[in-house]
């Protein structure tokens, strides 16, 4: 009982709650639509506050809800200190914070500092003021190359395809690492730095508990001329001096942000989305002098494979212990094929995210996928993840075992990646952003009164919340039970591996005796005496079935 109380207080401690939190990502435009316009909104989140409380999460992370033309699903922000009028008002936002806080749920919002929308007033002013103006200095404008400047300043590509430079009317070019409508800020400019501090204070003053930082590794750039070519860039080491990515000087920004976080009681917290070359470099974003935590996407890009999982878990725990932070586990988010689908696709050696891409590009053929296996593995992987030290980031709909939607007609797609190719390979990310089914019947499966902004397939009926809530064996029931037990069982941030005698079976024990066993293989695994203390997961005649996880209570409980 003592350790139960200990873990409970650690979970609710205002200064450390994030270290082992279960954080649920809400993609607001696809969560719940309260005003019946087909787009999810902030009052929709309020209307589902009880659902979130019953699920048993510690915090929500809201993807962007700011005014936006939706050139990139809201990651093109036109006003950082407001709510998109289609999603509600600032008063609605305050009501949402109150409703979630009342239920003991903390709130993290997304900050998008690498670029704004081209509709942001500063970018509009820069266009109007013309070349050489102070207004253009807040972004990255350059003259073109070629005889009349008709060629871009360099051959760099944008993440969503095409050139990373766009020409404006007077002939200058601006840099956009993502969509054309997402001009990159110039982080050497004091106005940019000051404005983001204002934004952090604005949301912190409204009661926000933390921030997720979009492409945190890209803000600072060395654009000394001559600019390197794309091929030259690719050959450069990622050692802190790369011109475009993971530069050492980006941490000066986060040190300043940390000082703002610490102005508050309790201090606000941050989690970096930083795609960097090594866990060591990732740890710099997670330091106590920086953002505090950084996403670890290693499981998200791993196969359903015992050896890969074990190495990733061990490496990340060692790394987070060394940095003083705690690690983060992720299997799905708004940028990748849902894991219940990914795990049902044939292995494409070492490239599980790519697997989803290929399948979607082919239109989602049914004969490529084993959906039962996908869901079985997804449930096993999630139970393993929820048993680990560190925080778990869950993506809306995964608690229903929801599948990726592959066959969205081209004229209904929204993701710029679908239309422009590029790094995301033309597959688009709309399939994991299809609005949630709340009821098996009714318009848009209870998402709202109108047709949802992305088409929902008929198969969503069987994943609806009302169907799953009534079924004790559903994925929703499993998540609820796991999150409830996790609150009781979560303890010190360590684990010890126990040898199982099988390369495809992983087993670890937490300091309070809570044991997690995952069978990645196809042959059942004999649990021996442990079989009598199973608190969660399937067991069949004393054995752990293929592709499943069990939680075993501490002895004597
Ligand atoms: C976000 C994406 C977005 C991109 C550009 C990523 O980190 O997760 O959804 O398209 O940044 O803002």
From TrEMBL:
**Domain Glycosyl hydrolase family 13 catalytic: start-end pairs:** 25-433
A GO term, aspect molecular function: alpha-amylase activity
Please name the InterPro entries in this protein's record: GH (IPR017853), GH13_cat_dom (IPR006047), O16G_dom_2 (IPR045857)
Q: SUPFAM superfamilies, alphabetically?
A: (Trans)glycosidases
CDD domains named in the record: AmyAc_OligoGlu_TS (cd11332)
4Fe-4S keyword on record: no
The family assignment reads: Belongs to the glycosyl hydrolase 13 family.
Q: What is the name of this protein?
A: Alpha-amylase
């Amino acid at each position: 009982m003592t350790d139960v109380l200990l873990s409970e207080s650690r979970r609710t401690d205002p200064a450390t709650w994030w270290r082992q939190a279960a954080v649920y990502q809400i993609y607001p435009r696809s969560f719940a639509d309260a005003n019946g316009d087909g787009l999810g909104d902030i009052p929709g989140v309020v209307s589902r506050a009880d659902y979130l409380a019953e699920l048993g999460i510690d915090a929500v992370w809201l993807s962007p809800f700011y005014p936006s033309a939706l050139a990139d699903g809201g990651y093109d922000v036109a006003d950082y200190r407001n709510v998109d009028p289609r999603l509600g008002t600032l008063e609605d936002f305050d009501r949402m914070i109150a409703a979630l806080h009342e239920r003991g749920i903390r709130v993290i919002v997304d900050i998008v500092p690498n670029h704004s929308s081209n509709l942001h007033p500063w970018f509009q002013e820069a266009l109007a003021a013309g070349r050489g103006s102070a207004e253009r200095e807040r972004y990255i404008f350059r003259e073109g190359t070629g005889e009349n400047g008709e060629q871009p300043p360099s051959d760099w590509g944008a993440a969503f395809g095409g050139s990373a430079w766009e020409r404006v009317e007077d002939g200058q070019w601006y840099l956009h690492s993502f969509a054309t409508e997402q001009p990159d800020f110039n982080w050497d400019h004091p106005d940019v730095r000051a404005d983001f501090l204002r934004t952090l204070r604005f949301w912190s003053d409204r009661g926000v508990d933390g921030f997720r930082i979009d492409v945190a590794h890209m803000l600072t750039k060395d654009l000394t001329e001559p600019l390197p070519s794309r091929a030259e860039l690719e050959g450069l080491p990622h050692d802190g001096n790369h011109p475009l990515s993971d530069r050492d000087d980006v941490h000066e920004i986060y040190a300043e942000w940390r000082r703002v976080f610490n102005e508050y009681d309790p201090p606000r917290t941050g989690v970096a989305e930083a795609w960097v070359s090594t866990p060591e470099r990732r740890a710099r974003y997670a330091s106590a002098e920086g953002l505090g935590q950084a996403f670890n996407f290693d499981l998200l890009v791993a196969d359903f494979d015992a050896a890969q999982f074990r190495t990733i878990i061990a490496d990340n725990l060692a790394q987070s212990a060394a940095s003083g932070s705690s690690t983060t586990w992720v299997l799905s988010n708004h940028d990748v094929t849902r894991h219940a689908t990914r795990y049902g696709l044939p292995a494409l050696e070492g490239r599980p995210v790519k697997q989803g891409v290929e399948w979607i590009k082919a239109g989602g053929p049914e004969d490529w996928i084993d959906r039962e296996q996908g869901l079985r593995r997804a449930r096993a992987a999630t139970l393993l993840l929820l048993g680990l030290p560190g925080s778990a980031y869950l993506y809306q709909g995964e608690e229903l075992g929801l599948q990726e939607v592959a066959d969205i007609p081209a004229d209904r797609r929204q993701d710029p990646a679908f239309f422009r190719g590029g790094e995301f390979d033309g597959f688009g990310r709309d399939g994991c952003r299809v609005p949630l089914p709340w009821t098996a019947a009714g318009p848009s499966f209870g998402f709202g009164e109108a047709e949802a902004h992305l088409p929902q397939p008929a198969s969503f009926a069987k994943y609806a919340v009302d169907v799953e809530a009534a079924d004790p064996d559903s994925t929703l029931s499993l998540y609820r039970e796991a999150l409830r037990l996790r609150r009781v069982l979560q303890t010190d941030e360590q684990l010890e591996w126990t040898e199982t005698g099988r390369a495809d079976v992983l087993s670890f024990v937490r300091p309070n005796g809570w044991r997690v066993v995952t069978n990645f293989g196809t042959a059942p695994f004999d649990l021996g005496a442990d079989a009598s203390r199973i608190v969660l997961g399937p067991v069949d005649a004393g054995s752990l079935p293929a592709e499943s996880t069990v939680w075993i209570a501490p002895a004597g409980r």
